[in-house]
Design goal:
alpha+beta
């Protein structure tokens, strides 16, 4: 299982706009082949900073999903809402 975080830093006051977009967009994410779950987290001290925590069957499936989002223009549509490009990190479980 692959765990992925995506951090979105929004323009001041635009966090609610991003959350509204996610309400619709994440329906498709959750239905995408290999998606186990997606959780939306809002920074308690800064509502314009939003993180997605995703779990996927494999990194390859998440990468196919991301490529699909690029092809459909979703990433480009988010640009005016964001103050900088989103950060994405892949994590693997460790037995420690």
């Amino acid at each position: 299982m692959e765990k992925v975080t995506l951090l979105f830093k929004c323009q001041p006051g635009m966090g609610a706009t991003l959350l509204a977009a996610f309400t619709t967009a994440l329906v498709d994410t959750r239905a995408f082949d290999g998606c186990i779950s997606v959780e939306t987290l809002v920074d308690a001290d800064n509502p314009d900073q939003i993180m997605l925590f995703e779990e996927w069957d494999s990194r390859g499936q998440q990468e196919k999903y991301l490529a699909w989002r690029v092809e459909t223009g979703m990433i480009e549509m988010l640009a005016p809402v964001l103050s900088e490009p989103f950060e994405m990190h892949y994590y693997e479980a460790h037995p420690a």
